Amino acid sequence: MLQNYQSTREMVEKNRPEESVYCFRPDVLIENAHLFTRLFKGRVLYAVKANPLDPVMDALYAGGIRHFDTASLPEIFSVCERFEDSHTYFMHPVKAWKAMGVAYHRYGVRHFVVDHSDELHKVMDVLGDVDEPPIVMVRLATPSKEATFNLSEKFGATPDQTVTLLRAAADMGARPGLCFHVGSQCVSTSGYEAAFNLTGDVLSQTNEPIHCLDVGGGFPVTYENTVPSPPP
To answer: In angstroms, rounded to a whole number, what is the distance separating the alpha carbons of residues 20 and 212?
Structure first.
């Protein structure tokens, strides 16, 4: 159960904690969510895996977030059961066969991420004959030298592989899309610039229109005495 305090100072003075304490500021989350949804003209997705706690999810919802990046069927279930007007996106590049069918038919998921031909074939084996074709987003690995955590070392296709997958997705009846993640805890905006340039190179080779572009990654802030560079 959450305890309410006027400030962190009050919490420390009253409890004298000897272990780490997690402080939650709902007003800040609501304000930031309002800021994102008001200023960004596209869809703003919250990645549930970042922090799935109910108070966090409720605050973001109160701030206007209705779209959620989900990595598993339990995450999809938790979002859809809590928020009836929410929209979820199956963003993990490796998904269970049954989970994809349940996500599509029961929870209305239409966006699925792949970074390998095996996963593309798996998605289309499950959803190839549905009335509304899935949007299959190919995850492009991007350079992430300015990120503390480089997720492209774990996920993502090379540019050549991405071109092939986009074409294959269209040929198989899916609606192709593209996504990338520049990494977490970025210290510079250069990762985004490089990723967009790489995206442009890929799209110039495909001759296939994409239905969406999903942009993921952390925003530059100061880490370990570093100063984030301003946008170009």
So the answer is: 41
Quick one: 76 exposed, middle or buried, by C-beta within 10 A (0-12, 13-18, 19+)? buried
Q: Which residues contact 51 (CB under 8 A, 6 or more apart)?
A: none
* Nearest alpha carbon to residue 53 among 73, 24, 77: 24
Handedness of CA 189, 195, 198, 202 (dihedral sign): negative
Task: List the structure tokens of 25.
Answer: 């500021």
Q: What's the one-letter identity of residue 206?
A: T
Bridge partners of 181?
Answer: 216
Residue with tokens 């499950």: 126
Distance CA 142, CA 150 (A): 9
Tokens of 40: 């960004």
- DSSP secondary structure letters along 121-169: HHHHHHHTT-SS--EEEEEBP---TTEEE-GGGTS-B-HHHHHHHHHHH
Tokens of 125: 């084996």
What average pLDDT values come out for the chain (232 residues) when binned by 10 residues?
88 93 92 95 95 96 98 98 98 97 98 98 97 97 62 75 98 97 78 91 92 89 62 56
List the structure tokens of 141. Answer: 């690995």
